[in-house]
Amino acid sequence: MDERFSSQINDLLALFQEYSPIQKDGTFSPDAVKEAALKMMDYVIEDKESLLRITEWMENHDFWTSPASTRFHGNTKGGLAAHSLLVTVQALRFAIPFAENFALSKYSEKFSFTAEDVFISAFAHDFCKSGTYATESKKTKDFNGNWKYEPYYKTKSDLRNLGHGNESVLLLLESMPHLLKKRTVIEAISRHMGFSDLSPMETYNYSNLLQNPLVLLVQLADQTAAGWWDI
Questions:
Q1: Which residue among 19, 27, 155, 177 has the highest number of C-beta atoms inside a 10 angstrom radius?
Q2: Do 53 and 46 touch, CB atoms closer than 8 A?
Q3: How far is the C-alpha of 176 from the C-alpha of 160, rounded, in Å?
């Protein structure tokens, strides 16, 4: 692990702390989430044409306003962006000790990753959720027993999806096609759901994917973001 990796990881975490967009109790400011995420992206993504394309893609696909789910974590306006940023921050928090430990393994010469790889793998892991939910209303009773209409999110009926992780990969490649050559990043996004998003045939070679440290890092970051902060 080189000094540049550690320095960039710490600089990204400092940027997040500067804006404090997400609180310990899981509450967040959508505006601060967007501002912090864009500032961190501008810092770490070296290809500025790719940066422009990916930010335009997020604007055009309702990334900043979409929920992260219909009823589990981040099921509120802006929940997807908050969840994506928190997963990224969790990955950054774990990245240095994770990389140090991986360097001791027999696979250390086989895989390498940068701070940009960590950021993109984590931030884009749920791109497939952008603009996939519609707002509908259901009739419920309030505290006094009076009927009222309450909005809720529902997956759009015409949704076309090639699988949770794989769809996110495809959407990311729309704006950053050069990542086709970054197998470690592609695998991390594709397999961030672990065994829960695999077909029976895919389980046969799943252990090979776990040699890639980014796969496990993003899985850990995703689980802790949803489980510890409910985002």
A1: 19
A2: no
A3: 21
Global pTM value = 0.88
Residue 196 is given by DSSP the state G
**What one-character DSSP code corresponds to residue 17?**
H
Residues 13, 54: Cα–Cα separation, whole Å: 21
> What string of DSSP letters covers 116-129?
HHHHHHHHTTTGGG
Nearest-angstrom CA–CA distance, 81 and 146 = 34
The per-residue DSSP string of 132-176 comes to: -EEEEEEEEE-TTS-EEEEEEEEE-TT---S-HHHHHHHHHHHH-
217: left (phi over 0), alpha (psi -120 to 50) or beta: alpha
Give the torsion sign (CA, 160, 166, 169, 170).
negative
In Å, what is the CA distance from 65 to each residue of 35, 61, 143, 150?
14, 9, 29, 19
Q: What are phi and psi of 139, to 5 degrees?
A: -90, 120
- And the tokens for 218? 């993003």
| pLDDT tens for the chain, residues 1 to 231 | 689 999 999 999 999 999 999 999 989 999 999 999 999 999 999 999 999 999 999 999 999 999 886 666 667 899 999 999 999 999 999 999 999 999 999 999 999 999 999 999 999 999 999 877 656 555 566 666 666 655 555 665 666 667 778 999 999 999 999 999 999 999 999 998 776 666 565 665 667 788 999 999 999 999 999 999 888
